[in-house]
Write a structure and sequence with these properties.
Layout (H helix, E strand, L loop, with lengths): L15 H4 L12 H8 L15 H14 L11 H11 L15 H6 L12 H8 L3 H6 L4 H4 L16 H9 L1 H18 L1 E3 L6 E3 L3 H10 L3 H14 L6 H14 L7 H8 L6 H14 L16 H31 L6 H22 L1 H8 L10 E6 L10 H12 L3 E6 L32
Antiparallel strand pairs: 1-2, 3-4
Helix pairs in contact: 2-15, 3-14, 6-10, 12-14, 13-14, 13-15, 16-17, 17-18
């Protein structure tokens, strides 16, 4: 990778997921209608990593060739080497430093026809005039591609120099250099069986497309060249040319099946040379609609829920569970209040304990569950408390048998009364009352203003 990682501030990603930010800002269904319109245009792009050009890229080159010849029934896997290489490219090579003299500008001088490329010693004008259409020379010569499509990374031809930021700016200002750069791109498209048809980068099949597509399907080292071409287009101001080319290669490899061996490289490499996330999503959605078998398409958004979504789901589940438990507790309390207690004192104490437990449960429940049960719970802060409890029987005095029997029958009847306490402390007195207590508490009949149970 040359001088790409000389600094210490950049932390390299360690997984494919860290390298791929394509779906981070996905809005859900953007531009799907646009996909259908572009499908009729037949435009595509292919990726051929700068891996053919460096030692670390050599691992990627082998990986890219292997991916292209995967058995149809074997589920493909994402390449970490490819993901990391394209991540660095899309992020302008973090910690990249121009160590070479800024005044050298050998790539620009080559395109100005002032120096030949090394080691062959051929000028750019000769390449454009004599090599165009010479498919054997373009196929078997492996030193010219680094000069025609320079990058900010070292390639296998060590005579070729990396681009510098200063050189890129000067290159874009030179109309002569830009004109020859576009002609070089057209020459390579013709070699692949395509032609450039407008200034937006739209490409279509050339007249000899069948012969060239067959060659491209068999000569998979050209996939690496395509990746380099795509990268160089983005470096030198032609980012808009990339998406149409990638779309065409996806269409030919996945839909038309004219270049089936290119399918994996197009998805793993070519798509990820495009810097705009929305453009990458459009291309991947197009590919997923036609990919076979569909369950093997591994370039879509992650199916794992995001951390904040998981927390929200857990919180909602917890609130629902607490609401359900609170409702059960209230139902049990209402059922219990309708029964005749055997011991009034213990009954009142149990009821008060239920109130304390219910209040603690409401505090833990949160705002939503708490608001629903708050109005039905005993509030100790009020100056006048209203307490629902079983009727307290009057003390049985020494009377006749007939009167005692009558009182006994009335004691067995179940009724609900309201005990009005003048303050909070007075409720504690109820704990000491029992059917045998000689002191009769102050009892009033419901006035109709209380809450019905």
């Amino acid at each position: 990778m040359g001088n790409l990682l000389t600094g210490d501030s950049f932390k390299e990603p360690t997984t494919v997921e860290e390298c791929d930010s394509t779906w981070d800002t996905d809005s859900g269904g953007e531009e799907e209608q646009g996909d259908d319109e572009e499908e009729a245009e037949s435009v595509d792009v292919k990726q051929s990593g700068g891996e053919e050009e460096s030692a670390a890229d050599g691992a990627d080159a082998g990986n890219q060739r292997d991916c292209s010849s995967i058995e149809p029934n074997v589920k493909p896997k994402r390449s970490f080497y490819a993901a990391r290489d394209l991540y660095k490219y899309r992020h302008q090579y973090p910690n990249f430093k121009d160590l070479r003299c800024q005044n050298d500008l050998c790539n620009l001088r080559f395109y100005m026809n002032k120096i030949p490329f090394k080691p062959d010693g051929v000028y750019i004008e000769e390449i454009l005039n004599k090599w165009t259409g010479d498919y054997d020379k373009l196929e078997h010569n492996h030193t010219y591609i680094q000069w025609l499509f320079p990058l900010r990374e070292q390639g296998l031809n060590f005579y070729a120099k990396e681009l510098t930021s200063c050189e890129i700016e000067e290159f874009k200002k030179s109309k002569e250099a830009i004109k020859r750069f576009v002609l070089a791109y057209k020459m390579m498209l013709d070699f692949f069986g395509l032609k450039l048809v407008d200034k937006k980068g739209k490409v279509l099949r050339a007249t000899n497309w069948q012969e060239r597509f067959q060659h491209l399907n068999e000569s998979q080292h050209n996939y690496l060249r395509i990746t380099r071409i795509l990268k160089s287009l983005g470096e030198l101001g032609y980012e808009n040319f990339k998406s149409p080319l990638v779309k065409t290669f996806l269409e030919e490899s996945i839909v038309e099946n004219t270049i089936p061996n290119m399918k994996q490289s197009a998805l793993e490499y070519f798509v990820y040379t495009i810097k705009d996330r929305s453009e990458r999503r459009k291309l991947l959605r197009f590919a997923s609609h036609h990919y076979q078998p569909p369950e093997h398409f591994i370039w879509g958004p992650s199916k794992q829920p995001k951390p904040d979504q998981s927390k929200t789901i857990k919180k909602i589940s917890l609130n629902r569970s607490l609401k359900k438990n609170t409702q059960k507790s209230e139902d049990n309390k209402m059922d219990h209040s309708m029964e005749r207690p055997q011991n009034l004192s213990s009954d009142v104490e149990e009821w008060q304990l239920e109130q304390v437990e219910e209040e603690n449960s409401q505090r833990a429940e949160g705002d939503d569950a708490g608001k629903e049960s708050e109005n039905d719970v005993y509030k100790s802060e009020h100056s006048q408390d209203v307490i629902l409890c079983p009727a307290i029987a009057s003390p049985i005095s020494s009377t006749t048998d007939e009167e005692g029997t009558k009182q006994s029958k009335e004691a067995n009847k179940v009724s609900i009364i309201i005990v009005e306490a003048t303050n909070q402390g007075s409720t504690d007195c109820l704990c000491n009352l029992s059917p045998s207590t000689s002191v009769t508490p102050v009892v009033t009949e419901p006035s109709g203003t209380g809450k019905e149970v």
